[in-house]
Specification:
Blueprint (H helix, E strand, L loop, with lengths): L18 E11 L8 H5 L10 E12 L4 E5 L6 H9 L6 E6 L3 E4 L12 H11 L4 H15 L14 H12 L6 E4 L8 H16 L3 E5 L3 H7 L2 E6 L2 E7 H12 L6
Parallel strand pairs: 3-7, 3-8, 5-6, 6-7
Antiparallel strand pairs: 1-2, 1-4, 8-9
Helix pairs in contact: 3-5, 4-5
Bound molecules: adenosine-5'-triphosphate.
The site of adenosine-5'-triphosphate has 11 residues, from helix 2.
Keywords: ATP-binding, Nucleotide-binding, Transport
Family: Belongs to the ABC transporter superfamily.
Protein name: ABC-2 type transport system ATP-binding protein
Length: 262
């Protein structure tokens, strides 16, 4: 999935996009556990829909250049997290193509991909190791990671025994210390307390200043405007508008904003 970014010498597009989705569709089943059975894997893309199936995303196409910060906007259940999971490679599309040309650091679920029964310490080594860091590199950053998360007393506690806020602290701390050029942040930060959230937001600003690419899902307008210049507005599984974040928020508010009091 990871390869060098080509640099064309001429033309309107200065770079090959870091992320490129073309006509992407993904369907889920409402009434069953799991998405597909083994037979479905060989049934091809044109198999008929089963009862209860619906398209969580359909005909979604966009390109993202390196260093862009993109806010993903939409009501609950409109496919925002699913979009991030597609970019992270955690789920595969049923239609279309997802190309991600650089490594991805995802903070898309409260667990951050951490293993419940492992201690905080072991989870830090496991997650950072899976993202290509050597033991030596992790040793060097370990104190920083724990200092940022402020969970010194819980290094040998199984991850499952941390509070929700503490889980997010350590997950963000690790994810934001990875070298991956693309960062995905779902709404999980909302669980952190105010002071910690602000610390995370400053860290995100530093990462953006360093040229990282960001996908940021939030229901908070102020936060979206703070980080993102571009927005994607998802509604009923479709990408309704792709444009400057202020236009996206205006359109979203016009469609679903709180009506004025009479
Ligand atoms: N693994 C799955 N199996 C079945 N349905 C799923 C699965 N994952 C997501 N869905 C459904 O897909 C739709 C989109 O979900 P998604 O989590 O992407 O929405 P969202 O926009 O992130 O919502 P929210 O703002 O509430 O977090 C929802 O109807 C959800 O119930």
């Amino acid at each position: 999935m990871v390869s060098a970014v080509d640099r064309p010498t001429t033309g309107a597009r200065a770079t090959t996009p870091v992320i490129e989705l073309q006509d992407v569709g993904i369907r889920f089943r409402r009434n069953k556990r799991g998405r597909r059975n083994f037979k479905d894997l060989f049934a091809g893309r044109n198999r008929r829909a089963r009862p209860g199936e619906f398209w969580a995303l359909k005909n979604v196409s966009f390109r993202v250049e390196r260093g862009e910060a993109i806010g993903v906007v939409g009501r609950n259940g409109q496919g925002k997290s699913t979009l991030l999971k597609l970019v992270a490679g955690v789920v595969l599309p049923d239609e279309g193509t997802v190309r991600v040309r650089e490594g991805v650091a995802p903070l898309i679920e409260i667990t951050g991909g951490f293993v419940d029964d492992l201690t905080v310490r072991d989870n830090v080594y496991l997650t950072a190791g899976l993202h290509g860091m050597t033991k030596r590199q992790i040793d060097d950053r370990f104190t920083d990671i724990i200092d940022f998360a402020e969970i010194h007393d819980f290094l040998d506690t199984p991850y499952k025994h941390l509070s929700s806020g503490m889980k997010v602290r350590i997950a963000f701390s690790v994810i934001s210390r990875l070298e991956e050029p693309v960062i995905l942040v779902d709404e999980v930060l909302a669980v952190g307390d105010k002071a910690f959230r602000e610390k995370c937001y400053r860290r995100i600003e530093e990462l953006l200043a360093g040229g990282r690419t960001l996908f940021f899902v939030s229901h908070n307008e102020k936060d979206l405007r703070r980080f993102c210049r571009r927005g994607l507005y998802l509604d009923k599984g479709a990408l309704v508008v792709d444009g400057p974040i202020s236009e996206i928020l205006d359109r979203y508010n016009a469609d679903y904003g709180i009506p004025p009091k009479h």
